Amino acid sequence: MTGQYFSPRRGNDQGDSLPMRESVSTIEVVRYFDEKFYTHVNEEMARYEEVLDRLKQNHDASEARHKKTEARLDALMQSVTAFQEQERRFHENPCPQLVSAVPDADFSGHRRAHEALIKAAEDTGDLLRHVKKTVVTAAIISVGGWLLLAAWAQLLRGPV
User: Fold this and answer.
1) Whether pTM exceeds 0.85
2) CA–CA separation, 73 vs 119, rounded Å?
3) How many Å apart are CA 84 and CA 139, to the nearest integer?
4) Are 110 and 102 a contacting pair, CB within 8 Å?
5) Per-residue pLDDT tens for 116-147?
6) Continuous segment of H or E residues that includes residue 154
């Protein structure tokens, strides 16, 4: 190929175009594109390696977090299993002092008895609040009525 029309990127100031000459050989053109191609391939491979390294680091960090989480879950499962075993042993053979404190070892009946006592105490408290409110209301009305009658009696007597 000959002539100045072949140069790719004609007028490019980066110096990556073929030199402007009257004649350019085919081997020069192939070498030029070969060099550009392999430079581009090497740049892309470097980027690929960088991305691959980042992915490996991210994967390793993710694996580390997964192992920590897995260890925490294992510890939690062991704790829950130990608690369940402790509960099972307690229900199979409860504490002797607790059994002697509950009549006939009827724990649910004992719980219901306490719930009934608590409900009765709440009802008594509600009743006392209602009685206090009624007494205070009646006292205020009585005092107000007495003051009104005293004022009315004074008004009927006239000026003193």
Assistant:
1) no
2) 42
3) 60
4) yes
5) 999 999 999 999 999 999 999 999 999 999 99
6) helix 107-157
Which residue is associated with the tokens 């607790």?
Answer: 98
What residues are paired with 2 via a beta bridge?
23
3-state secondary structure of 23: strand
The answer to whether 4 and 22 are in contact (CB under 8 A) is yes
Domain boundaries, the chain: 1-93, 106-160
Helix (H), strand (E), coil (C) string for 90-134: HHHCCCHHHHHHCHHHCHHHHHHHHHHHHHHHHHHHHHHHHHHHH
Nearest in space to 28 (alpha carbons), one of 95, 36, 15, 90 = 36
Amino acid letter for position 131: V
Would you say 2 and 23 are in contact if contact means Cβ atoms under 8 Å apart? yes
